[in-house]
Amino acid sequence: MAQLITPEEVESRLKNSEKLHLIDVREIDEWESGHIKEAVSLPLSELAERYEELDKNAPLIMVCRSGNRSGKACDFLEAQGYNVTNMTGGMLAWQGEVALG
């Protein structure tokens, strides 16, 4: 079972200039409509083919729309030996700054 982090904790850590590895697993159209500036896009539909692009030594925070798909991504990555945390509530709960495009 993956660890959990709230959007508020993520925002607070970013404001404290912490270097976080945020992975947004929403599809590209969702990403372009608004995402956390520090996140990188890796759609869940591509995760099985591309997960090795991720740093296995870094703690990863997975983000999606509501927390469901990122939870599935966490389960998959955890099985591959990654250190993952799911952002609860996803972008629906995110109150911080949003980047477009």
Overview of this protein structure:
The protein has 101 residues and is α/β, with parallel strands linked by helices. The protein has a single domain, classed as Oxidized Rhodanese, domain 1. It has helices at 7-15, 28-32, 44-50, 68-79, 90-93, and strands at residues 3-5, 21-24, 40-41, 60-63, 84-87. The protein has a five-stranded parallel sheet with strand order 1-5-4-2-3. Strand 4 (60-63), helix 4 and strand 5 form a beta-alpha-beta unit. The protein starts with a strand and ends in an 8-residue tail after the last helix.
Give the class-level CATH name: Alpha Beta
User: Alpha-carbon distance between the termini?
Assistant: 32 Å
Structural class: alpha/beta
The CATH superfamily is Rhodanese-like domain
Rg from Cα? 12 Å
Write the element-wise H/E pattern from the N-terminal end onward.
EHEHEHEHEH
CATH architecture call: 3-Layer(aba) Sandwich
CATH topology: Oxidized Rhodanese, domain 1
How many β strands by DSSP? 5
Low-confidence stretches: none
Q: What percent of residues are in strands?
A: 15-25%
Shape: globular
Relative helix content: 25-40%
The side-by-side strand order for the widest beta sheet comes to 1-5-4-2-3
Average predicted confidence as pLDDT = 96
Largest sheet: 5 strands, parallel
How many domains? The number is 1
Report the total helices: 5
